[in-house]
Automatic annotation (TrEMBL):
Residues 39-114 form the Disease resistance R13L4/SHOC-2-like LRR domain. PROSITE patterns: LRR. Gene3D superfamilies: Ribonuclease Inhibitor. This is Disease resistance R13L4/SHOC-2-like LRR domain-containing protein. Keywords: Leucine-rich repeat, Repeat. The lineage of its organism: Eukaryota, Metazoa, Ecdysozoa, Arthropoda, Hexapoda. It holds the Pfam family LRR_1. It comes from the Eukaryota. GO terms for cellular component: cytoplasm.
Length: 200
């Protein structure tokens, strides 16, 4: 995207509160910070971000953040400043963990983390009471820990991981209706009968 095209994008974003920039970026474009009080939706999918600049913390009005298909291997602690965030798409990256400050994102509803490299279930999402969907499909997760009882989602997608054991505490998830576990390493006798009603 040329400078004139980017400038037009930024001008439009001031009016609409929506910005989509997919042009192999690895840093915020010039003039981007002038939108900090306007943006509600930021789509930076299909770029080359390895991490996010700390300036992301200034966009405190963001509700939707799409970072699908970048090269992210780290999310900075300052992400916890985005307390109005509702949708967070981090799919198709190189993430193995998330910062503890994710627990500050109390308005999260939908989180997409498919196609990353998580080996452990990210318990930072446990306790977020508005979270409805958590997609962790196509990772390398090996077990579902007892902390899952604090997860408030109605749908949890764990398809295509390496899960061989699930804590019985999954039955204590207060809102869970759908648990997706296709293509894992589970033996049927490793799943307590109490859990079977959730699994699709």
């Amino acid at each position: 995207m040329g400078n004139s095209g980017l400038k037009q994008h930024l001008e439009n974003a001031k009016k609409t509160g929506v910005l989509k920039v997919s042009s192999n970026l690895n840093d915020f474009p010039p003039g981007f910070l002038q939108l900090e009080s306007n943006l509600r939706t930021l789509d930076l999918s299909d770029n080359k971000f390895v991490t996010l600049p700390n300036e992301i913390s200034r966009f405190i009005h963001l509700k939707h953040l799409n970072l699908h298909k970048n090269k992210l291997n780290k999310i900075p602690d300052c992400i916890g400043a985005l307390t109005k965030l509702e949708t967070f798409n981090l799919s198709h990256n190189n993430l193995t963990y998330l910062p503890r400050t994710i627990t500050n994102l109390i308005n999260l509803k939908n989180v997409y983390l498919c196609d990353n490299h998580f080996k452990e279930f990210p318990v930072v999402f446990c306790g977020l009471k508005h979270l409805d969907l958590l997609d962790l499909s196509r990772n390398e997760i090996r077990s579902v820990p007892s902390e899952i009882s604090g997860l408030h989602v109605s749908e949890l997608n764990l398809n295509q991981n390496q899960i061989s054991e699930i804590s019985l505490q999954v039955i204590n998830c207060p809102r869970l209706r759908t648990l997706r576990l296709e293509e894992n390493c589970l033996q049927l006798n490793a799943v307590h009968s109490s859990c079977l009603g959730y699994i699709t």
